[in-house]
Amino acid sequence: xxxxxxxxxxxxxxxxxxxxxxxxxxxxxxxxxxxxxxxxxxxxxxxxxxxxxxxxxxxxxxxxxxxxxxxxxxxxxxxxxxxxxxxxxxxxxxxxxxxxxxxxxxxxxxxxxxxxxxxxxxxxxxxxxxxxxxxxxxxxxxxxxxxxxxxxxxxxxxxxxxxxx
Length: 165
Description:
Elements: H1 3-16, E1 20-24, E2 28-33, E3 42-47, E4 52-55, E5 60-63, H2 67-81, E6 85-91, E7 102-105, H3 114-124, H4 129-137, E8 141-145, E9 153-158, E10 161-164
Antiparallel strand pairs: 1-2, 2-3, 3-4, 4-5, 6-7, 6-8, 8-9, 9-10
Helix pairs in contact: 1-2
């Protein structure tokens, strides 16, 4: 294991206040961070000639394979751990989950109405405004997931009103 990965491992253990599991392969290193509140771990993949890849949920996030890239990854993890960032996804009325998620600023959720939720979806490119309105009108759910799963919430559209659950 090279010095870059050893240093990243130390920083991750300090930041996340937990041991991380490092699995070294011939061409890559995978770092797993167990979340104590859910079964799914965060994974970070390091391949020498590629970007760092972090998987918080469904959609990978990429960071340059440099010291600056690692620092940006650590900053995003810190914000996710402290609840400043959260994951946004949705579930259709048929209980089909979205194939992707987006990392969003949790502050954007304050006093959220349908228009605000549409703006978040448009900004992130997860769904168009019309697609979101159709999803919610038909009984679908928008989910917000946090590192601390006890803070997870969802939004539904009931009687032409956006309801947080």
